[in-house]
């Protein structure tokens, strides 16, 4: 009888041991192929216009070091500094840096998933984990092509989980185990500092370590050494972030941005967005089903339930971390498609291990890995064609860049921070997303003060949403636009105001006769099926609502 560190059992037959260990089936080339294909598919999206969060966070990172009274210089956003730092690095890589970094992170996730599968069950499991990760990183329905907090945090989570399993179970020296434990802790902290609700790596490491210790699978000395290293690793980036916040606007501001704001914002969402939230939740469930995430999750639960009942340390840890991931999706509030990326780490690991388990359930897991992999290979090129088309956001931002002069700033009402990023202009108002504005400036007092203060008033104001949307108290904003601004142009069916006293040349409307359409990838009320709609015809600006600044300014 061969004894091996196999999930769920202490002893297995020689045949199963060989299958699990995969001695004669090197995993490296197969895992590398999955990662390379992931990068190739992501490169198909690299030239596309950035989504709202992508462009907005790139804008925040661009102006981060320019000075200002808010957490990130002139901007405030409810995201940790690790995510903004990632966008700062992406900006250094040029105009396509954001999508390039997204592709590199997705490929790194696949590699880390293969590592985790190998550390848990051997080469064969590594291959299945890598291909499960491939489809989870390449389904366009969950916007995996975009750089966002979920993608960054999920990649760090996968690294932390793989390093933790290797530290506890790997046939390595004590010093190497300590190093892997420290890496696991650093990665777990980095996940939280990229997206504050990504505590799944920390939970996985805690439960896995405790379960391994209680079942005496790891010697106590090694267990304590790895746990101490992981704790030290977790503390290092956490202390760095806390120190940065303390020397800037204060540690309390960072804690509020990461956690306190979500409490306040949840009350705003609950008060004003019942119908929209319900629609987005139903759509998110539909996306989870169409993408293959639900079917793989069901297969994992069916095939792995026996392992949980047997108190397998690995599957107890997977179950605990998986519940944290599900809670993160459920409590997110906005139910954006990219929330589902948060489920990827535990699904990839569990799928890889269960695909080589000596049970009939492995065939179910394999089926629901292979089918989505094929679907991702077929669908991604077609999706990329839709995503990379120029849309009204990009066209409006570029129009502003042509019309503006050096030193101009802009405010976009009240969404689409990616317009600000596409323009390259400095943001004049700290809340570039609607939720912070609705939560922190519901009467729009700060916005009004910004528009009327000659020292900080923006040169440009773009009306993307109706002034009174979400029942915002916009009468003072309307008055400020009427007295301090002139309706300068209508660009892609969106009104643009210029501050009185400024003289600028009006470029032609880029959407007139060009076929540029408004992307519906992020639209509420429709699944992101990579189609477009006629430019802004449903918006209140285009339904004949009068502008507070009157008709468009006549040329000359």
Account of the 3D structure:
54% of the residues are buried. The strands form three sheets. A five-stranded mixed beta sheet has the order 4-3-5-7-6. Strands 1-2 form a two-stranded antiparallel sheet. The longest helix has 28 residues, at 220-247. β3 (409-413), α18 (417-423) and β4 (426-427) form a beta-alpha-beta unit. It is 59% helix and 7% strand. α3 (52-63) crosses α18 (417-423), α11 packs across α19 and α13 (293-309) packs antiparallel against α16. The protein is globular. The chain contains 21 helices and nine strands. With 556 residues, it is an alpha/beta fold. It has helices at residues 14-21, 28-43, 52-63, 81-92, 97-121, 123-137, 149-169, 174-194, 200-214, 220-247, 251-272, 274-291, 293-309, 313-330, 344-354, 361-387, 392-403, 417-423, 434-440, 445-452, 475-484, and strands at 2-6, 9-12, 409-413, 426-427, 460-463, 485-491, 494-499, 518-519, 532-533.
Please sum up the structure shown.
By secondary structure, the protein is α/β, with parallel strands linked by helices. It has 21 helices and 9 strands.
What are its keywords?
five-stranded mixed beta sheet, disordered C terminus, 556 residues, single chain, 21 helices, two-stranded antiparallel ribbon, globular, alpha/beta, disordered N terminus
């Amino acid at each position: 009888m061969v004894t091996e560190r196999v999930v769920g059992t202490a002893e297995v037959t020689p045949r199963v041991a060989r299958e699990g260990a995969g001695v004669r089936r090197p995993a490296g080339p197969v895992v590398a192929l999955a990662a390379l294909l992931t990068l190739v598919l992501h490169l198909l999206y690299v030239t596309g216009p950035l989504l709202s969060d992508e462009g907005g966070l790139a804008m925040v990172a661009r102006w981060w070091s320019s000075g200002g009274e808010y957490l990130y210089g002139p901007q405030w956003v409810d995201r940790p500094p690790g995510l903004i730092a990632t966008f700062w690095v992406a900006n250094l890589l040029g105009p396509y840096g954001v999508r390039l970094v997204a592709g590199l992170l997705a490929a790194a996730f696949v590699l880390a998933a293969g590592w985790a599968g190998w550390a848990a069950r051997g080469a064969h499991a590594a291959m299945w984990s890598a291909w499960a990760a491939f489809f989870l990183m390449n389904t366009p329905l969950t916007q995996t092509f975009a750089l966002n907090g979920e993608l960054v945090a999920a990649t760090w989570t996968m690294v932390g989980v793989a390093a933790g399993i290797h530290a506890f179970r790997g046939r390595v020296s004590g010093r190497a185990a300590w190093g892997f434990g420290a890496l696991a802790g650093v990665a777990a902290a980095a996940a939280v500092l990229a997206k504050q609700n990504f505590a799944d790596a920390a939970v996985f490491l805690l439960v896995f370590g405790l379960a391994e210790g209680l079942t005496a699978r790891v010697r106590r000395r090694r267990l304590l050494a790895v746990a101490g290293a992981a704790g030290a690793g977790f503390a290092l980036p956490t202390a760095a972030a806390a120190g940065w916040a303390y020397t800037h606007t204060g540690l309390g501001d960072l804690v509020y941005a990461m956690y306190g704001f979500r409490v306040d914002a949840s009350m705003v969402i609950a008060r004003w967005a019942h119908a929209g939230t319900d629609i987005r939740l139903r759509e998110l469930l539909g996306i989870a089903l169409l993408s293959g995430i639900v079917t793989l999750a069901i297969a994992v639960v069916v095939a792995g339930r026996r392992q949980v009942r047997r108190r397998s340390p690995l599957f107890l840890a997977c179950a605990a971390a998986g519940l944290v991931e599900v809670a993160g999706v459920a409590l997110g509030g906005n139910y954006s498609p990219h929330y589902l990326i948060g489920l990827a780490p535990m699904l990839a690991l569990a799928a890889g291990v269960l695909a080589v388990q000596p049970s009939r359930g492995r065939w179910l897991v394999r089926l629901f890995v292979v089918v989505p992999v094929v679907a991702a290979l077929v669908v991604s090129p077609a999706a990329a064609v839709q995503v990379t088309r120029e849309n009204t956001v990009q066209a409006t931002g570029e129009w502003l860049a042509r019309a503006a002069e050096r030193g101009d700033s802009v405010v976009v009402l009240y969404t689409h921070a990616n317009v600000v990023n596409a323009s390259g202009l400095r943001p004049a108002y700290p809340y570039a997303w609607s939720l912070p504005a609705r939560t922190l400036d519901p009467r729009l007092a700060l916005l009004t003060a910004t528009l009327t203060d000659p020292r900080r008033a923006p040169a440009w104001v773009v009306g993307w949403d109706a002034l009174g949307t979400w029942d915002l108290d916009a009468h003072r904003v309307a008055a400020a636009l009427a007295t301090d601004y002139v309706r300068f142009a209508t660009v892609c069916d969106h009104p643009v105001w210029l501050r009185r006293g400024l003289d600028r040349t009006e470029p032609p409307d880029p959407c007139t006769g060009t076929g540029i359409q408004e992307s519906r990838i992020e639209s509420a009320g429709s699944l992101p099926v990579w189609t477009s709609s006629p430019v802004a015809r449903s918006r209140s600006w285009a339904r004949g609502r009068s502008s507070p600044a009157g008709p468009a300014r006549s040329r000359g």
